[in-house]
Amino acid sequence: DTEVTQTPKHLVMGMTNKKSLKCEQHMGHRAMYWYKQKAKKPPELMFVYSYEKLSINESVPSRFSPECPNSSLLNLHLHALQPEDSALYLCASSHLGRVGHETQYFGPGTRLLVL
Amino acid sequence: QQQVKQSPQSLIVQKGGISIINCAYENTAFDYFPWYQQFPGKGPALLIAIRPDVSEKKEGRFTISFNKSAKQFSLHIMDSQPGDSATYFCAASRGSASKIIFGSGTRLSIRP
């Protein structure tokens, strides 16, 4: 099973709202990722968690707050977003430290619209 | 040096033809080169991947050719089908739990 699930599929929020995106995987992967993808562009890395600890933050604004409560779950908390933050938010996961198993498996994404 | 350059930006191929997408990289430290396929409204899905110690890898109708000395790699889709119409991203990375450097993407359209 190479499935990464994400909820919700779609989200519309105002600039003063607080919302959260959720990601889950049961592949035993110990690395999890958040990406942002704008239309007709490649995904851009936001955060990487390794063994439930934040290992990479690509200088993401503080209005995005990641959380990794356990090895299967990854959340992205959103607060005071701007309209330009509207995008497809993708979660991915991969094995950690296993040569030949670097593949990142992506979820279907959450389509976010900020009004 | 972190870039992966991808061409063409868009490609139209007749059904049954060969689709070819090319990528080039600069950083010789990259050790993993995946290709992802993405349909509209979906997340990217791994299509095929290669390591720099292999010059070619084939999986069904999909083949990666890798030229380490030229720092180039390409995806060939044989007998292209309308269901192959999607956006394709080449990518490169180094090590695990690392940043994937994506190419800019190629929008492939297969005409029936």
Walk me through this protein's architecture.
The complex is a heterodimer of chains A (115) and B (112). Chain A is 0% helix and 56% strand. Chain A has no helices and eleven strands. The N and C termini of chain A lie far apart (36 Å). The relative contact order of chain A is 0.33. The model of chain A has no long low-confidence stretch (mean pLDDT 93). Chain B has 112 residues and is an all-beta fold. Chain B is globular and about 40 Å long. Chain B starts with a strand and ends with a strand. The A-B interface holds A 4, 31, 40-43, 45, 48, 50, 55-56, 58, 90, 92, 94-99, 101-109, 111 and B 32, 34, 36, 41-46, 49, 89, 93, 95-100, 102-105, 107.
Strand/helix succession of chain B: EEEEEEEEEEE
The shape of chain B, in one word, is globular
* Number of helices, where a helix is a run of at least 4 consecutive DSSP H or I residues of chain A: 0
> How many β-strands of chain A, per DSSP?
11
Residues in helix, % of chain A: under 10%
SSE order of chain A, one letter for each helix or strand: EEEEEEEEEEE
* Gyration radius from CA atoms of chain A, angstroms: 14 Å
Which percent range fits the helix content of chain B? under 10%
The oligomeric status of these chains comes to: heterodimer
Largest sheet of chain A: 7 strands, mixed
Question: Could you report the average pLDDT of chain B, rounded to the nearest whole number?
Answer: 94
Largest sheet of chain B: 6 strands, mixed
Beta content of chain A: over 45%
Contiguous low-pLDDT stretches of chain B (5 residues minimum) are none
Distance between the termini of chain A: 36 Å
Instruction: Give the tally of β-strands of chain B.
Output: 11
Label the structural class of chain A: mainly beta
Q: Structural class given helices, strands, pairing of chain B?
A: mainly beta
